[in-house]
């Protein structure tokens, strides 16, 4: 399967400099291993804080 990195980068809302940017499979695996969610689950104001916790996600969705 072809990697869609360039297409993914156009939709990525992550504001952090990171080598996994656009590589969604690696991004999800990285944050999942840490018990977190990737940037695309968060609205811009929360994403900017860098808090990728499930708790932050639930707080911003409640
Ligand atoms: S969400 Fe995390 S792993 Fe994904 S690009 Fe941003 S900093 Fe990197």
Low-confidence spans: none
The hetero molecules present are: iron/sulfur cluster
- N-to-C terminal Cα separation, in Å? 37 Å
How much strand?
under 5%
Structural class given helices, strands, pairing?
mainly alpha
Number of structural units classed as domains = 1
**Would you report the number of β strands?**
0
Order of helices and strands: HHHH
Q: Please give the largest β-sheet.
A: none
Q: How much helicity do the residues have?
A: 40-55%
Radius of gyration of CA atoms, rounded to a whole number:
12 Å
What is the typical, i.e. mean, pLDDT? 97
Structure description:
- It is a single chain.
- With 62 residues, the chain is mostly helical.
- The chain has one domain.
- 47% of the residues lie in helices and 0% in strands.
- The longest helix is centred in the middle third of the chain and has 10 residues.
- The model has no long low-confidence stretch (mean pLDDT 97).
- Bound molecules: iron/sulfur cluster.
- Iron/sulfur cluster binds next to helix 2.
- The site of iron/sulfur cluster has 10 residues, from helix 2.
């Amino acid at each position: 399967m072809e990697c869609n990195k360039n297409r993914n980068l156009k939709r990525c809302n992550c504001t952090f400099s990171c080598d996994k940017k656009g590589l969604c499979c690696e991004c999800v695996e990285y944050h999942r291993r840490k018990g977190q969610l990737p940037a695309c689950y968060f609205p811009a104001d929360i994403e900017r804080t860098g808090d990728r916790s499930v708790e932050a996600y639930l707080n911003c969705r409640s």
